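Writing this down once: the sequence line spells out the residues, with the fold written below as integer tokens. This is how one looks:
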Amino acid sequence: MDFAKCLIEWYLSNKRDLPWRRTRNPYKIWLSEIMLQQTRVAQGLPYYLKFLEAFPKVEDLANADEDEVLKLWQGLGYYSRARNLHATAKKVAFELNGNFPDTYKALLKLKGVGDYTASAIASISFGEAQPVVDGNVYRVLARFFGVDTPINSAEGVKYFKELAHKVKNVEQIAVYNQAIMEFGATQCKPQSPDCSVCPLQKECVALATNKVKELPVKLKKTKVTKRYFNYIVYIDKEGKTILTKRTAKGIWYNLYEFPLIETVKPVKSKNVLLEDEGLREMNIERLALYNTKEIVHKLSHQHLYTKFWVVHLQDVLPNGIPFEKVKEFAVPVLVANFIEDFGF
């Protein structure tokens, strides 16, 4: 069996009609690849279309304000992707005359562009014979060839990249790369793949050895940290509130949120919050917990246990934000959901 040829034939008959598959424009390919990292196609597609409408060319994205970029990105998560996206757009537009590098090695020098993204752009836009290796590709290769080396180990990363080079189709590299990714996404799925209709079934080692559920192998994740967030939602006499910008490196850098009090354990009484210096300085009329049950927001290595406390003030906030303006700010999805639910 010609592994690559079989995948290409399957792809040409089964591929989804997606906008980035109708172009070789490196800007559009780059945009789609960055957006679809850690994101399902169904979730990423509307964002891709929104970004292209707002920023048809890389120069448009480069000239945009970061807050505008983050606001459009809101809900996709992993916001460092958006900041890197913006930084790379500026480099391409202002330093490279609007032209993306046309080789794998040169693409790797762009911020936020790693092995996978550089391989995708180089192969799809410029025809360079670089195989892509993402989660879908790991799964297809691990199952078909029966490889149990952990995909997130140094040894695994090297081994699978070498294997990807061995089985690639050089003459049709752009189609082949899209084929193996699509195959992993829709046919050789993580859970319950329908092996009975798989074109690779006759030579699939995982199927023959009853290891489809066991492959690929992945080392256990880093221990998850629990954090306890208490958002203080101020409402003054004029119906205005406060949002602050996260300036510390870490989650949600440069996004806006309500004033935050982070504690080492859940806050069970508002008296604990009233000991905070910021709250003590306010002329409080009343303070009440909005959500009696903590909202658990799960990130890759940390879980945020969150409560929103609504604080009505007797005074007027000097730099208060009118309710109707709150939705204009780029905020984490956790805060965005509260804003929607609260009725700002």
The longest strand covers residues 302-313. The two ends are 60 Å apart (CA to CA). The beta strands are 225-235, 240-241, 244-245, 256-257, 260-263, 284-289, 295-298, 302-313, 321-322. The chain has two domains: 3-208, 225-342.
